[in-house]
Amino acid sequence: MKTxxxxxxxxxxILLLISMFLFNFSSVYGQETMKNAKVSLSFSEEDGAKKxxxxxxxxxxxxxxxxxxxxxxxxxxxLLPIGGFFNTTDENGEVAVDFPDxxxxxxxxxxKIVVKILESDLYNDLTVDEGKNWGVIxxxxxxxEERTLWAASANAPWPLIFATSAMIIGIWIVFWFIISELxxxxxxx
Length: 189
Hints:
Layout: H1 2-29, E1 37-46, E2 49-58, E3 68-74, E4 79-88, E5 94-99, E6 111-117, E7 126-132, H2 158-188
Antiparallel strand pairs: 1-2, 2-5, 3-4, 3-6, 6-7
Keywords: Membrane, Transmembrane, Transmembrane helix
């Protein structure tokens, strides 16, 4: 009875190993190889409307049809999506999206426009970015750099800095006084 259980477990383990090998073999060798794509950006302004156009081609220059591209604008901490949810290329490999007029840029109005190929079944992931002066010009407000109570710690008001420093120094003086008195008491014994 014990040998039957051992042979049963051995057969099960062998079948499991064979099925794992066949699954890995079929998943690796059954897939097509991923291709590289090239994406170029062009910009146009017509009747006050700004458009970003992406052209997707294969390495040999043939246009890629029905490729999904994602359009973004680089912000401080992340990417802001622009355009629609599904931006797919046409038979010429082109897709165009409208650029919003109210996005803030830097001090000269420059924004970075990013186009990505993400999770395509046939093409490798790709990121292309290019700067354009299409943002709203932003200026730094110098009043935010003044020493105010609500400013950053580097711009705290001088009286607040002196008061907190004096309290911290006063607390340390009291600690050292208590320690010195305890030392004098221990010497008396």
